[in-house]
Each structure stands twice: as C-alpha cells, then as structure tokens.
Amino acid sequence: NWLIERTHPLPITRIPTLFAKYTYESVVEEARQRLIRADPDAQYNLRADTIYSTTTRYPFWRWKLFITRAYCWLSNVIYTLCLVVPFGSSFSFRALLALKPFRSNYELKREDLKLHEDPYSETQTFISRLVALWEHVGQSRRNFERVPDRGFLGKNIQRIFNRFWNYVVKGFFGTVSICVFYPVSCVLISTISFILGVLSPIWMPIVTLIFHILQILVYDANSAGEYGRKLFCVINILVTDFLLCGIVQPILVLIALIATPITSVLLVIYALLHRYSRGMYDRIMYHLIIKHRARVPAHDGFLARRIAGPGLAAEYFYQVASPEVLAALESLIEQNELKVYRSYIEQILNKPLEDYRMFFDEAFKPFSVKVQSMHGTVYGRMNDVVDGHIKNLRSTIEKRSDLLRLHRSSHHDRIRLTESDLTAVLIEGTQLVEKWYPQRIFSYLNKNELEKFWNDYDLEPNDWLSLASKLLQELFCRDFLTPLEQTDVFYSLKVDHSTVSKYAHMIHSASLHDDLDVATSIYLPETTYTIQQPTFNETILNPNETILDISTDYFGNYHAKTHGRIYRFFNHQAKYLKDAENLSKFVDYTSITCHFSIPIPLSHIAFVNVIIYNRDNNNSTTTISLKNISLQDILSLIEYHKKIYNAPMLPLNHNIA
C-alpha cells in the first residue's frame, strides 16, 4: 500500500493516494489542486510500509512481540516471495512473457502529488533484452562503417574481425545464453519463490520462535529499558537473580543476622576499653608529669613535635574520583536542558494566548477595547487551561531538578583533582558537552538565543573545552581547575623504625638517632603571590618639586605673639626643630592661601638657569618651582636672595626676558 503523508507543517496527516496513469473525476482533481495551492511550502513523504509497536508495560509482552513480529515477517515474506519476485523482479514471469520493459516502483511528484512510475526501477524483459542486444550489434556495425579507413590493418581486414565479434560472439552467443539460461532462471526462481511464499505460514513462525530463543539465550536486542541486560539474559537471571539473590543472599542475611550483633558488641566493648584506658593513661601522664614538669619547647624534640602554627598550613582539600565529577557534570547538563525545555514549552503553550491577544488588539483597538482575563470568558478559560498546563510542567520539571540538584556544603569549594584526573575529566567533559549540547539544548534555541548563550559565557561558538571548564567551575568552585599537588592532599608522616640490620648499620656508621628523629611532617600550602607593577616616583629627580614659600611678604613687619609661661612650658619646642621647620616650609600652589598672580610665559633661558642653579646649590630655601611662577615672584626671590647671599642667583651672562 502506497501512503502519502504531509509531514510539514505538523501534525502529520495522510492524504488520498492518486496514480498518474489513471484518470480521476474532476472533483478529485480540483481537491488535489486546492491542496497544493493552499500551502506551497508543505512537505510530503511517500512510504509503502506500516509500523507496528508494542510496549513492555504489561506482562507477557514478549509473547505479544513474538506474535507481532511473526505477523510482520510473514506479511513481508508473502509480499516479497509471492508478488515481487514472481511478478516484479528481473527474473519474474512478467519479465519472461512481457514484450516491453516495465517499471515496478513509483515516485511522488511535487507538482501534482501523484505517483509516477520511477524510471530508475525499469526492468528489462526477455524480448527487450534480445532487442537491446541486436540493436547494440547493429549500432556497433554502423559506428564501424562510419569511421574512415585509418586503422592499423585496413578496413577490409578489420571488417572480418568486426563482423565475427558482433554477429558471432556478441550476437549469436549472447542470444543463445539469453534464450537458454534466462527463461530457465526466471521459471526456477519465480517458482521456488512462489512455493516458499505459499509455505511461509508454516516455516516463518518457527524461524521467529528460533530468533526469540536465540535472543533470550545469547543477545537480547529487545530488552526493556535502555540499560537492560542484553548478553546471556537467561544466565543472568539464573545466576544473578535466582542463585545469588534468591539463595546466597538469604543465607548471608541469616549469617549476618547472628554475626552482626556479636561483632557490634565486641566492637563496642573494644571501643569502651580503648577509650577509658587511653583516657586514664592520658590523665595519669598529664597530672603526674606534664602538669608539673612540662614546658613549651623551643624546637622539635624526641617527645614533642609542633603540628600547627606559623609555617604549617591548615588548608586541606578533598579529592574526588573522576566518574563522580562526570556524573555531576551530566546532572548539570540535564538541569540546563530542563531549563531550556521549560522555556521552549512555555512559549508553545502561551502562543495561542498571544495570537488571541494580537487578533483582539488588531480588531478592537480602534474602539479602545482591551482584552481582559475574566472568569467565564473565552480568554479567561484559555488562560486557565494554559496556566494549568504550565503549572503541571513546572512541577514535573521541578521534581526532576530536585533529584538532579547537588546540595552544596561548606566543603564544596575545597574539592580538587590531581593533574591526571583533571585532564581526563576535561577530555571526557568536553566530549559530553560536545555530544549533548547541540542535540539536547541548542535544538530548542534560535539563532539569537544561541548567540546570546555564547556571549553570556564569554566564549567563541563551538568552544566546547572552554564551555566544559566553565560548567565545572560553576558546578564546584572557581579554583576547581587548579590541579591538586601531592603535598596538598595530606600530611606525609613516615617513621623509619630501626631493625637489627639498621641498628648494626647505625652503629657501624656512627650515625645514632631515634625513630622520631627521621619523622618528617611535609606540607606545602597553596600560596597566592601578588606581584605589583614596579613604580617610580619621578618627583625625586625634579629639583623644582619643593619650592620656597615666596608668597611671604619679605619686606613687611613681623609680629611675634606673646604667651604666658604655662603655654610656653607645655608647647616648648627644641631649637633644632625650629630650624628644621623653617628650612622645610614649602608652599602648595593649589592651596587657597597662595596669592601669586596669574603665571606669565617665561623664556627657556630662565627655566634652564633656574634648573641649573637649583641643581648646583641643593638648598631647599632657594628652590623654586617652574610650574606656577610669575615675574614678580622671581624678582621677589632675587631681592630676598641678595639680603642673604652676596652671589647672584642667576648667572651674569644670562638675562631674564
């Protein structure tokens, strides 16, 4: 049966099957043309099979599968052996008796949605083979006679060989082989095929039963569940379920029922004896010796060794196995898939509401009418139904997410892996991400959402290794990708006990020591080094950074405040501090107390002379700034300089302009 189905847009619908070689009524033809014009972008599929399915939900599902498989195989065998081979194949009765080639297969044409004969399935008959053979012989002879006589031996001699090859070898022997072997082959193959097809109701159930038995004994391809037992199903049931779980396990349970309480009592007695004996020993040692004689040692010795404090870190890490990390990564991937799936399904559920709202707004917006979700209205009922579906969807996904969610603890940020395990996890995690993200997550995203996904992770598209690294950091902590060193895992305490041979060697080498003298506690904590960029204070080389307080009125009168003896006693200052204060009195030109005039431009000669003088005479009282300086400031500085020093401030051979 040829079936035509429209696969896009969904849902899949079946349309009537029409053949191009038949003539139908005008009503049927017009209906088919309307179907084509209604949706030019629709996609159609042609198939000639029927699909049957069974479920493993109910008991005796294998017997139902056996009956279904026997029926399907029997139908296929009868169709193939009784119809296709005897009447539609190259060695069929039709190929033996028909005069012209025939086509046994059909194809669907998109133009008229009818079934046309497939030119690739053309089958040659007995007569057409003979005709094609002698047409080929005649064409070969015509081609030979058409070519000019430019051959190796000449055309008169070549014609003899050409006629012999075409008429005798190809024509005569080809005709004999076709006339002798082809009819016999057609009769035998078609007859045997038809007989096997007629007898198939007898032998096909036996073959199906043998196939099911082999599946149960060797390889069960129809096992229930994705991770069901497939190899040697019966042996697994007999050994695992019956022998181990049914016989051995109850015996072990009975033994454990008797042995476990006895063992528990013995362990409790041992723990109590060990606890009280050890506590009594510690209490006696503490009160008799340590309390009265012990002191804090300055270094490690024979009886006491420092185990904590400066130099010994208390940073520990927890190492997990690689399969556990990969399982957690798969759980995170599935959680992300559930989030994307929920968003995708919610968009589908809300689409009817959006379409209804858009239609209502376009129709009634000119009348200032808005759609409202009221109880009893069409929109209200639609909204209630959609809300119910979304609520069920979210509750179902939330239940699954609760099962997949990892419960973080205070030790979650201290999980690490060794370098080899981390490398293996990154490789396997990259393969997992590359396998599942395009199939399970990206299929729900459009182009913009996919671009936003990579931008949120700050990654290039298809950078699976970096994506796996980001997911692992999100799953555990930011420093999870830092490999765990051997010294980061535990304290390695090793005591080299002296045996008889070692004691003799110790005496011989004159290297006498106790056991604890060679015990070492090794631990290298993780250290974070912060290296700052080197900086340099450029003002050190600037001679004009420290400037003289030339804003003082050097020609004014000075007034000294007088204070009482009590004030001078409590505010007494040494003389050297007064001199230092006078020498280091500087001016900040950004302060509001500076009364300089607006700076005027100076020539380069003045700048150079001031810089040279400040460099040669390193005296803070004569240092002047070149940033904010006016001509009046320079003249005031020169006049003040003349009162203190007889030498000029600037060289005599330069002038200030």
Structural class: mainly alpha
The share of residues in helices is: 40-55%
Q: Strand order of the main beta sheet, please?
A: 2-1-3
How much of the sequence lies in strands comes to: 5-15%
Number of strands: 11
Note the gap between the termini. 112 Å
Question: What attributes does this structure have?
Answer:
mainly alpha; 54% helix; two-stranded antiparallel ribbon; 657 residues; Lips
Structural overview:
This protein is mainly alpha-helical. It folds into four domains: 52-217, no CATH class; 318-488, no CATH class; 492-522, no CATH class; 540-644, no CATH class. The protein contains 16 helices and eleven strands. The chain has helices at residues 26-38, 61-88, 93-97, 126-146, 155-217, 233-293, 322-364, 378-404, 419-441, 447-456, 464-475, 500-509, 565-570, 575-583, 604-616, 631-644, and strands spanning 3-8, 13-15, 43-47, 102-103, 106-108, 115-117, 122-123, 318-319, 415-416, 492-494, 520-522. The longest helix has 63 residues, at 155-217. The radius of gyration is 51 Å and the shape is extended. Residues 489-498, 515-529, 545-570, 574-602, 619-624 and 647-657 have low confidence and may be disordered. Keywords: Membrane, Transmembrane, Transmembrane helix. It holds the Pfam family Lips. The chain crosses the membrane at residues 167-196, 202-219, 255-273. InterPro entries: Lips (IPR057435).
